[in-house]
Amino acid sequence: MFCSKCGTQNLSSSFCTNCGSQLQAVQPPLGTPTLQPMPSSVTQSNTLSVLAIIFGSISFLLFPMLFGSVGLVLAIVAKNKNETKANTAILVSSLGLGLGLIFGAIVGTLAF
Fold first, then answer.
1. On the chain, which terminus has fewer CB atoms closer than 10 Å, C or N?
2. Residues contacting residue 80 through CB under 8 Å, at least 6 positions apart
3. pLDDT at residue 3 greater than cutoff 80
4. What is the DSSP string of 40-106?
């Protein structure tokens, strides 16, 4: 709310913090910028990224084609939603998929 006498912006009181006069609902003086909250382009939730990291980690030991692929898809969707941990999720899922396939091939050839 703005003071009608001095034009000072007051947040939540019935008297002006600058001149002490009683506040009334008035329009702000011309040329006074209004404060608007900045829109956030980064999602605060990292749910998809965390799930992708979990699936990528599991894919190193169990079914790398299944869990690694699911992890990569989740990580890419998280990247499109601008989640902060999406790059880490892509890295972990890719490594889990690739290293899981290599590890499975080595274990498979040694077992037979």
1. C
2. none
3. no
4. P-SBS--HHHHHHHHHHHHTTTS-HHHHHHHHHHHHHHHHHTTBTTHHHHHHHHHHHHHHHHHHHHH
At 9 the three-state DSSP class reads: strand
Confirm if 78 and 86 have CB atoms less than 8 A apart: yes
**How many domains would you assign to the chain?**
2
Distances (CA, A) of 38 to 35, 42, 43, 52: 9, 12, 14, 29
CB 36 within 8 A of CB 26: no
- What pLDDT is recorded for position 85? 92
55 and 106 part of one domain: yes
Assigned token pair, 104: 């499975």
User: pLDDT by residue (tens digit) across 62-92?
Assistant: 899 999 999 999 999 999 999 999 999 999 9
pLDDT at 43 over 50: no
